[in-house]
């Protein structure tokens, strides 16, 4: 899909402007970028459409023309992954890490702004997960850094905690669907949880609470993947080794039924992406 977007030229402002407004190429590009960076971060590879190869004309625009938060997170992730894999930037240097976080700070506050306004309240958790995952991409490699290690450990602990608790809140609803993509994130958070525990960043009670959340999320994938019981047993052994008690799994509460989200990038119908979450992409009917 990213290859097609580049072939069509919708990643460049000049060629994108040549398309009719009803083609909604702005929406098409942002949805492509979102999926491209999502796949790249899962396989630890550079995005197909690399940062710097496309025009991001809305990135610094004031309200109401700036893109929605998911689009801006996709741009940040594309930028970071491109820099990590370029080999030309030391992404673990204090200068790079601190400057990058300073630019991210306003967006972090926006991700923490939980809303209670219908569809946006359903979408907020995914933005929160995405932002904290990007923070892990930046800070986790610095855990053993001589200068940044001391500040990276609490940031990593906070980010993995946000991801696990957000997934846990989704698991209590019908919006949680076991899949490999979220399993990779959850397992990565479990591994980092062990590191933060051995670094004494987390107290025993909070580490055990997070460990219980992590194991419960792993078990949500039983039946979807054959190897999950082995994963659970392996992590329980690791937890016991570092002194974390393995909690007795409580009886799961009935799931809360929430409105199903429409298909995220259905271009044939008006969706939440068009009308609610990405208002800058709205086009007047002609």
UniProtKB/TrEMBL annotation:
This is Transcription factor domain-containing protein. It comes from Vanrija humicola (Yeast). The lineage of its organism: Eukaryota, Fungi, Dikarya, Basidiomycota, Agaricomycotina.
């Amino acid at each position: 899909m990213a290859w097609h977007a580049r072939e069509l030229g919708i990643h460049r402002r000049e060629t994108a402007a040549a398309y009719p407004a009803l083609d909604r190429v702005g929406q098409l590009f942002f949805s492509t970028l979102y999926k491209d960076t999502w796949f790249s971060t899962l396989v630890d590879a550079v995005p197909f459409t690399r940062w710097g190869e496309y025009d991001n004309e809305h990135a610094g625009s004031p309200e109401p023309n700036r893109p929605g938060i998911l689009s801006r997170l996709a741009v940040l992730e594309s930028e970071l992954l491109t820099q990590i894999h370029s080999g030309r930037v030391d992404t673990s240097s204090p200068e790079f890490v601190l400057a990058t976080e300073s630019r991210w700070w306003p967006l972090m506050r926006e991700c923490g702004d939980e809303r209670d306004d219908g569809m946006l309240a359903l979408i907020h958790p995914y933005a929160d997960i995405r932002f904290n995952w990007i923070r892990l991409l930046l800070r986790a490699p610095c855990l053993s850094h001589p200068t940044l290690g001391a500040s990276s450990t609490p940031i990593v602990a906070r980010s993995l905690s946000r991801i696990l608790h957000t997934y846990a809140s989704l698991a209590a609803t019908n919006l949680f669907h076991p899949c490999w993509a979220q399993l990779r994130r959850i397992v990565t958070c479990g591994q980092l949880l062990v590191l933060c525990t051995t670094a004494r960043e987390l107290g025993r009670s909070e580490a055990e609470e997070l460990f219980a959340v992590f194991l419960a999320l792993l078990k949500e994938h039983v039946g979807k993947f054959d190897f999950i019981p082995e994963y659970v047993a392996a992590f329980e052994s690791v937890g016991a080794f570092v002194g974390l008690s393995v909690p007795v799994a409580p009886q799961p509460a009935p799931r809360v039924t929430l409105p199903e989200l429409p298909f995220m990038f259905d271009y044939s119908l008006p969706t939440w992406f068009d009308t609610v979450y990405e208002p800058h992409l709205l086009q007047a009917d002609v």
